[in-house]
């Protein structure tokens, strides 16, 4: 990470603000650094991939995941507990007939505690405005062409749930290990803008 | 009895409110005044509108409401599920009386 | 209220641009903004909905021109001033 020339004034403003808050006792010394370390060690798309891979190989886990995702991910050592407000994880499963895609049209809600920060395109006005109205067009733009017969459901994260898409297991992956299967899963697949 | 007993259950047809309250709200404009169906209940939470004003707010039901794209935008063959506090919803009398 | 953040269903925004191998943050200050916001919310200076509200109150032309974390920084400073945590003069570095 680096601070570019263009946003040097913003970086200076943040440093100044932290100094003022610390001086006034609104921030403890080292508090920001502790939080930065916690982020670095926190959510990651790999957590989502591990959840998907387990659901692909273990039908009982898959059933528990779809019934109560916040509890089921605890079996893999994950939790939704790091969020700033109480949140529930909802997992929606793609199948041959229906494809799910996630957005937050009002802001940028995303399971950050589980997956880390969302990609910039997810937070863009372009994605947020268009995917609810023309999901097929947006998915095509992002490289996912679905059969005309596949129904699309868009989930707008407008309240306290956070969503994760469970992609379909690709054909020809019967011989792969759980770790190899997890390696196939992308962040876009977890949002629903890629097949896997 | 809780402060806010659930007014809706899965399967109920609902209509979203038309009014646009002053300040923060979590009913997107595109889903205002629209007809949908409750698919599931997404827990009970204080109303975001009230929390944003720094007001105390008792938890009340939040629902996943499914809309046909055609009922939101006049076109499209997809569905949109929006997560809405009960405060934003009214029973769709026309459809529930059928 | 229908504010500039409420973009669902609008037309006219540009194509969606993906950044290959995008890092979690593009600059250190962005991560600091996220950490600062979390610290203020956990301390009870303001809550998450007040924070969202402050972002939504950014005038539309400025909302659309600002980067994602610029909006966050602006909302944080707005709330800190409104809550009386820091004065505008302190914010300006005076």
Automatic annotation (TrEMBL), chain A:
Organism annotation: Actinomycetospora lemnae
UniProt keyword annotations, A-Z: Metal-binding
Name this protein carries in UniProt: Nitrile hydratase subunit alpha
UniProt keyword annotation of Acetylation present: no
Positions of the Nitrile hydratase alpha/Thiocyanate hydrolase gamma domain: 11-194
Superkingdom classification of source: Bacteria
Gene3D superfamilies per UniProt: Nitrile hydratase alpha /Thiocyanate hydrolase gamma
Pfam families: NHase_alpha (PF02979)
UniProt cross-references to InterPro entries, sorted A to Z: CN_Hdrase_a/SCN_Hdrase_g_sf (IPR036648), CN_Hdrtase_a/SCN_Hdrlase_g (IPR004232)
KW Metal-binding (keyword) present: yes
TrEMBL record, chain B:
Domain Nitrile hydratase beta subunit: 3-91
InterPro entries, A to Z: CN_hydtase_beta_dom_C (IPR024690), Elect_transpt_acc-like_dom_sf (IPR008990)
Keywords from the named record: Lyase
EC number: 4.2.1.84
Region described as Disordered: spans on this chain: 1-32
Alphabetized SUPFAM superfamilies for the sequence: Electron transport accessory proteins (SSF50090)
Gene Ontology MF terms: nitrile hydratase activity
Protein name: Nitrile hydratase subunit beta
Biased amino acid composition, Basic and acidic residues: 1-18
Lyase among keywords: yes
Top-level enzyme category: lyase
Lineage of the organism: Bacteria, Bacillati, Actinomycetota, Actinomycetes, Pseudonocardiales
Superkingdom as given in the UniProt entry: Bacteria
UniProtKB/TrEMBL annotation, chain C:
Presence of the UniProt keyword Lyase in the record: yes
Keywords, ordered alphabetically: Lyase
Domain Nitrile hydratase beta subunit-like N-terminal intervals: 1-92
Protein name per Swiss-Prot or TrEMBL: Nitrile hydratase subunit beta
Pfam families on file: NHase_beta_N (PF21006)
GO MF terms, alphabetically ordered: nitrile hydratase activity
InterPro entries the UniProt entry points to: CN_hydtase_beta-like_N (IPR049054), CN_hydtase_beta_C (IPR042262), Elect_transpt_acc-like_dom_sf (IPR008990)
EC number of this enzyme: 4.2.1.84
Species whose genome carries this gene: Actinomycetospora lemnae
């Amino acid at each position: 990470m680096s601070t570019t020339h263009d946003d040097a004034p913003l970086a200076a403003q943040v440093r100044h603000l932290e100094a003022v808050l610390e001086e006034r006792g609104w921030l403890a010394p080292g508090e920001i650094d502790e939080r930065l370390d916690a982020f670095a060690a926190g959510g990651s798309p790999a957590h989502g991939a591990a959840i998907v891979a387990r659901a692909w190989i273990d039908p009982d886990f898959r059933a528990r995941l779809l019934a109560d995702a916040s509890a089921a991910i605890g079996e893999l050592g994950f939790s939704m507990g790091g969020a700033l407000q109480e949140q529930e994880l909802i997992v929606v499963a793609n199948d041959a007939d229906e494809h799910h895609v996630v957005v937050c049209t009002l802001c940028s809600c995303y399971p950050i505690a589980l997956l880390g920060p969302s990609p910039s395109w997810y937070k863009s006005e372009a994605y947020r405005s268009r995917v609810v109205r023309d999901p097929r067009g947006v998915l095509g733009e992002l490289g996912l062409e679905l059969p005309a017969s596949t129904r699309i459901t868009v989930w707008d994260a407008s309240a306290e749930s956070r969503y994760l898409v469970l992609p379909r297991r690709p054909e020809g992956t019967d011989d792969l290990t759980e770790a190899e299967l997890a390696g196939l899963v992308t962040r876009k697949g977890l949002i629903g803008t890629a097949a896997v | 009895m809780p402060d806010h007993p659930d007014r809706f259950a899965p399967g109920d047809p609902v209509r979203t409110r038309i009014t646009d309250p002053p300040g923060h709200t979590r009913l997107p404009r595109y889903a205002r005044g629209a007809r949908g169906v409750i698919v599931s209940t997404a827990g009970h939470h204080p109303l975001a509108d009230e929390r944003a004003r720094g007001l105390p707010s008792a938890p009340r039901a939040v629902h996943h409401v499914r809309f046909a794209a055609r009922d939101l935008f006049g076109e499209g063959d997809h569905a949109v599920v929006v997560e809405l506090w009960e405060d934003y919803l009214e029973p769709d009398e026309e459809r529930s009386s059928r | 209220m229908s504010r500039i953040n409420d973009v669902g269903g609008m037309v006219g925004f540009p194509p969606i641009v993906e950044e290959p191998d995008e890092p979690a943050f593009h600059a250190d200050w962005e991560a600091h903004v996220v950490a600062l916001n979390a610290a203020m919310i956990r301390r009870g200076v303001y809550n998450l909905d007040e924070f969202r509200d402050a972002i939504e109150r950014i005038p539309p032309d400025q909302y659309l021109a600002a980067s994602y974390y610029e909006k966050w920084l602006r909302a944080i400073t707005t709330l800190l001033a409104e809550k009386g945590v820091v004065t505008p003069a302190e914010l300006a570095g005076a």
